[in-house]
């Protein structure tokens, strides 16, 4: 008699489309049988984010490739282990881009890691977040089932919200094997400018501009310099650029900002991200601060205590996340009891044995 566990009753109606997907499902089923936690990983470019956990690695990088792509429909379906740079290169050949402008933060970033961390680049306030572009997913759940949620078109809404829940879940809800996403045409015209102004003036301008139909798709302020990216129709871009009387900026700036390669990020102090309402004023006390997302994202390099930083963020209607490993045992903002209960109930539904990235976001989640 075979000593191997029989997982045939756990298999869902959704069939594995590749041998690599079947292998991932088998690994999950074995972990479930042994009550053994798994640490989902792709390129590990964002492994520093969140709490460090002790679990057996489950590598997704063997499961890669484009499943379906019709440039005329502005939708692409791709496997989770696909290198992010490969996906972006394929889109670029068709004059298209990922609207959320996701950061790689390393050479080996994967599509699954992009969705799991939910991080977006400078374009986010004007185009949307990773979650906004997810149409559908295939997920291996903590029941040992491969399920499909959502679809490849906006009209197919069955399971749409559950697919979106995978964005920013840090692998705690299930193993993502495939994702369908909206993509955008590359902007027709662009200008990159830098203006001299202090932080208070920059925030005031950004608040005023946010009320107007202007072709801004990125706005960052640091050390009395306001950096702007203008994209869209030639006439509107040119007209607004002329009204600013700014200095030309090398567009590589936005890539360096997105990938945290600017000199600001090299400061040895811990890095914190404060997500705030765009109209929030200057931070007090004002430490080494870089403003992104038109005011909605503040990067701080600071030694201030985490309780003080989180109090500042909460008072302004936002939250604080630590982007430097080892600084705090609670990198993410603690959740109110009611919201944590909802998180735990969702986790219990999708991963009842708690095998997927246990404790990655919170110690009891």
From TrEMBL:
Main EC class the enzyme belongs to: oxidoreductase
GO molecular function: FAD binding; glycolate dehydrogenase activity
EC number(s) reported in the record: 1.1.99.14
Alphabetized UniProt keyword annotations: FAD, Flavoprotein, Oxidoreductase
Domain (FAD-binding PCMH-type): residue spans on this chain: 11-186
InterPro entries: FAD-bd_PCMH, FAD-bd_PCMH-like_sf, FAD-bd_PCMH_sub2, FAD-linked_Oxase-like_C, Oxid_FAD_bind_N
SUPFAM superfamilies recorded: FAD-binding/transporter-associated domain-like, FAD-linked oxidases, C-terminal domain
Entry-linked Gene3D superfamilies: 3.30.465.10
Pfam families per record: FAD_binding_4 (PF01565)
PANTHER family cross-referenced by the UniProt entry: D-LACTATE DEHYDROGENASE, GLYCOLATE OXIDASE SUBUNIT GLCE
The protein's name in its UniProt record: Glycolate dehydrogenase, FAD-binding subunit GlcE
Organism: Nitrincola lacisaponensis
